[in-house]
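Why does residue order matter? Because the sequence determines the fold. Keep that principle in mind as you read this record.
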Amino acid sequence: MKVKFPEPPPSGATVITATRLSKGYGAGSPVFEDVTFDIGRGERLLVLGLNGAGKTSLLRILAGEAQPTLGDFKFGHSVNVGYYAQEHDNLRTNESLLYNIRSEVPSNVMLTETQLRGMLGMFGLMGEKVFQDSGTLSGGEKTKLALAMLMVGRNNLLLLDEPTNNLDPASRQAVADALSTWKGTIVFVSHDAEFVEQLKPTKVLLMPDGQVDFFSPDWLELVSLA
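Structure:
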């Protein structure tokens, strides 16, 4: 499997500025609070924390899928966001693979069915399978479809929540190779230490307290616990 993400369009120097973000559910204590960070063009931010620390909630907020309880964030100039949801929430399960990937094509971009099938084919989704309802796919196939859908969006910022879950080793390596050479900005969550090392994060955001640090190999010991 050979995967290649398209060149990202240019964006402003500052891609995300988040200020005192907090998220709670109901009357209980917030999952996280006062999280402040910024990320520049081409950086890779690893969001790290134990289960329940708010990693997925933070990515959902940045993706516009949820609202913060308090605080705010903004994107820089000409930032186009692609979001990979851990539970594949963005898949239309009653529609075909071809329909799903076509729905992500921006209105100002023209891609033929042959081109779309080529992108699916990069992930091993080919032949009559492209006409299947996405709800019939295995977990690994859903992951591949969701990743293929990111390729058509002309994104320069990717928000990735456990993008290697359910992938076989060869596919995981192909995705890691593609993302490690991609020149856009990435904010990601992963418990796969080898994948994290290959993506070469520039910063770490520790949840739920919001501590930001430069990445070093020492952080890899915590990745598999996250």
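The first strand starts at residue 14 and ends at 23.
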